[in-house]
Each structure stands twice: as structure tokens, then as C-alpha cells.
Amino acid sequence: MSETRETAPPQTPKKPGDVQLKTAEKEPLASTGDGDPGFLELPVVENTNRNRRGGRPDWLRVKLPQGESFKKVRSLVDEYDLHTVCESANCPNMGECWSAGTATFMILGNVCTRSCGFCAIKTGRPDEGLDWDEPRRVAEAAEKMGVQHAVITSVNRDEREDGGAPIFAETIRRIHDLGATVEVLTPDFRGIRDACQTVFDARPDIFNHNMETVPRLYRRVRPQADYQRSLDVLHWAKKDGLRTKSGIMVGLGETEEEVIDLMKDFVEIDLDVMTIGQYMQPTKMHLPVEEWVHPDTFDWYKEVGEDLGIEHVESSPLTRSSYHAEKHV
């Protein structure tokens, strides 16, 4: 590992109740007002006192969601009372993916027990219990959408010993019954092996768990997570015979050397797919953008990661975990 990495003091992973959770209200998307109705400003709130690079660059503009396919997905999500991470996390690719008839379903509710500094999903105490009918509704919506590859993610449910893993497993089985492939983007389940194994045993086609950032920044970015614990979950999945995937955001203050060191950790656990995207601040209550990383740097990260031994690196400013997910099976 590089000697340039600044090692953070050891810390004990936080448990439910250790951190006071707050709820951040999502801000609505708004048009640019620049006279071009075909584009939408990304939901990034700039903090001029801390954002080092000022206004967002031209390469961070996306098309306004529109078209019949987009409307169909919107209708199905509402009809089946489902949540999508596309909406909950203000994903900039929602228009492109929904217009193509795909969406990433978010199960286990829309309230997360963790309070990560980057995430727009609401935090707090979820309703008690699990919605055991949710896997059926997700599968029926996926069938009506005609998807051949479904992506399933969730909030953290740290108040439960099983972390909601049984709902993941049942959703995987129902999607497979449709003849479609499944990628799951799971929490770390607090490192509880039995919960992880429940998901492994359902045999998703891709097991994804995001590291999000480099180890030095965990205390600020993911205060209730642990870098080694997340690596362990991915390693367990790989040893269980699953295809593994993970992703990070850049622009949070990491160095290029730290990103490369993280890639080396991925190579050590034989990770198959890595995603790298630009962090964008969803609301004033979230961490500021420290750097707008140039597209050339994303191209370089892809080259370095694949040269190190990662089979596929999806790397661009607008890359998100499930972007082009169907290509990663």
C-alpha cells in the first residue's frame, strides 16, 4: 500500500442508537432557467465557502426526463406502491434509465437507520416489521416493465438482527422466476454473517456492496460503517461463488493515491466490477463537493483499475452503482 495514505485513528463501528439520526428533506428538481428547456440542473447545492471548484462544469448536465417509457415506469412505481433509489437518491441518470424502461427498486421502505453525509435518502426510525408482500409487487412491476435485468437495493435496517435480508432473498427468487437476472446492492448488514448468507443463498447474479469512499474519509462520510467490514462482506460473497461489484464516489477530498490503494484492496478480494462516479451534494445539509473531477481522470482511473486486475471498471462523472448494470452480469 502507498505510504502517502493518512491513517485514521481506529474506531469501533457504530451501532443502532449510537448516533442521533436526523431527517433531511429532499429538494425538488428545478429547470436551469438558462433558456434551454431540454436540460435539467442536477440537484447539487453549492456551498461557496467550501466548494473548491465553484460552479459545476458543463459535463454535469442531463436530459430532462420525458417520453412514453418514462411515463410507464412512473405509473408502475406508483401503482405498486414501490420506492426507487432513482428518486430517493436524486440520481442524475433517472431520465435516461426510466426512458429505457429500467429502474432500480429500493426495498425495505424509504427510511434509513444510518446518517451518511452524502446520501439524500431520509434517515430515522423505520416502521416496525417488514413488508412481506413487497417482493411480489416488485416482481410484478418488473414483469410489466419487461426488464431482463433487475437491480434491487435497500435502505439500512440496523434495528433488525436480519437487516431485512429475507426480503432481499424473496425478491431475488421472484425475479429469477420471471427468467430475469438480478443484481442486489445491499447494506453491510452490520457484518452479521447469517444475514449476509441469507442473501448469498438466494444466488443473485451480481452481489454489490458499495465502499463509497477511501478509508481516511469514513468517519466523515460513513460514520456508522467500517471499511474493513465492508471489504469482508464483499470477500464472503466472492468466496461463496458470487460475482461481486462495488463502487465509490470521488470529489469528497480523496487523493488519487488513495483511490489506487482502494483498487488494490479490491484486487486482493478478487472483485469483478467497480464503479466510480462524481459526488454531487444533494442538499445544504450534506457534505460539500470538494472537487469536480475531470472526465480525463475518470478515464485514467478506469485504465489503472483494469490494469491492476479488476475485470471491468465503469468510470465517468455520471456513473452510479446501477448505471449500465445490465452490462456487468
Main traits of this protein?
329 residues, alpha/beta, eight-stranded mixed β-sheet, two-stranded antiparallel ribbon, 12 strands, globular, disordered N terminus
How would you sum up this structure in a few lines?
With 329 residues, the chain is of the alpha/beta class. Helix content is 30%, strand content 14%.
Polypeptide structure, described:
The chain has about 325 residues and is an alpha/beta fold. Strand 10, helix 9 and strand 11 form a beta-alpha-beta unit. Helix 5 packs parallel to helix 6 and helix 9 runs parallel beside helix 10. The longest helix has 14 residues.
Number of strands: 12
- Straight-line N-to-C gap: 30 Å
Report the uncertain regions. 1-8, 21-53, 85-90
Major β-sheet strand ordering: 3-4-7-8-9-10-11-12
Question: Element order, helices and strands?
Answer: EEHEHHEEEHEHEHEHHEHEHE
Strand content: 5-15%
The radius of gyration is 19 Å
Overall helicity: 25-40%
Enumerate how many helices there are, as a single number. Answer: 10
What's the story with the biggest beta sheet?
A: 8 strands, mixed
Topology:
Layout: E1 39-41, E2 61-63, H1 68-79, E3 83-84, H2 85-88, H3 94-99, E4 104-107, E5 111-112, E6 122-123, H4 134-145, E7 149-154, H5 165-177, E8 181-185, H6 193-201, E9 206-208, H7 218-221, H8 227-239, E10 244-250, H9 256-268, E11 273-278, H10 295-308, E12 312-315
Parallel strand pairs: 4-7, 5-6, 7-8, 8-9, 9-10, 10-11, 11-12
Antiparallel strand pairs: 1-2, 3-4
